[in-house]
Amino acid sequence: MRVVMFGYQTWGHRTLQALLDSEHDVVLVVTHPKSEHAYEKIWSDSVAELAEEHGVPVLLRNRPDDDELFERLKEVDPDIIVANNWRTWIPPRIFGLPRHGTLNIHDALLPKYAGFSPLIWALINGEPEVGVTAHMMNEELDAGDIVRQEAVPVGPTDTATDLFHKTVDLIAPVTIGALGLIAAGQTEFTKQDRSQATFFHKRSIEDSRIDWTWPAEDLERLVRAQSEPYPSAYTFHKGKRLDVLAAVVSQGRYGGTPGRIFYREGDGVAIVAGADARTGRNHGLAITRVRTEDGREMGATEYFTSMGGYLTSRP
């Protein structure tokens, strides 16, 4: 089939590479200009450079809603558009133009985790598995019929970076497998159960801030979800930002006020956590590694030279 690819960052790069390696003919690539947004500088393999290396024409757009793009699409006459990690709304006159419509590749097990940063949100929420979904695009965000979907388990120590590598390897088989079904003439696919749909927003620095009223189990997953190269989970100590690079749920149960720097436990320092911490029934978050405001990384037992005081959400 004649394919136009809309994509960005490593997700788009992997999708384009899969298309170039397949029997399909990539006739045009549309991608975003480079961005300085913290989350868009991560996994930033260039879709434009890969396309140019293979002689595929490239158009740069922030939004695909101009007449010039529409006319160019009509000229190249695609059988299908394939999109992955396209960051802005694609209007119906674009996604409905090809003979077979538009296939969107999303790194979540739809209908849950539509929208942005699905792997990070899924890890924070303790989901047992994550995956990749190929679905037909319609006017509602990530809501079209599912053509193909594959899942991988979330391990007990997996970080968001680990889940990225697990799921990015699913892009090629999910994309090419879905295109194979469409090329073979299949037109009926799995409807999404919209009662199960959830939508998540783009992450920002605010979303990495530690709230000590969360249970320790949730905070431990937040720290893993904000693993390098993502911006780290952070708190404040004596008015200065402190990045929490590694942590585990404490063995002991600690009562008192959330955020209290309480007890050395093994290689970590236990912090009281949970909205009902006063009951003494909660485990704490045992921080094991931190980074100071001036960029120094060290073990928590080295940083916290004495117990007492509080970690806070604000300076």
Automatic annotation (TrEMBL):
Keywords: Transferase
GO CC annotation, single: cytosol
Domain Formyl transferase C-terminal: residue ranges: 206-306
Domain Formyl transferase N-terminal: 1-169
InterPro entries: Formyl_trans_C, Formyl_transf_N, Formyl_transf_N_sf, Formyl_transferase-like_C_sf
Pfam families per record: Formyl_trans_C (PF02911), Formyl_trans_N (PF00551)
GO molecular function: methionyl-tRNA formyltransferase activity
Name of this protein: Methionyl-tRNA formyltransferase
The organism of origin for this protein: Streptomyces violaceusniger
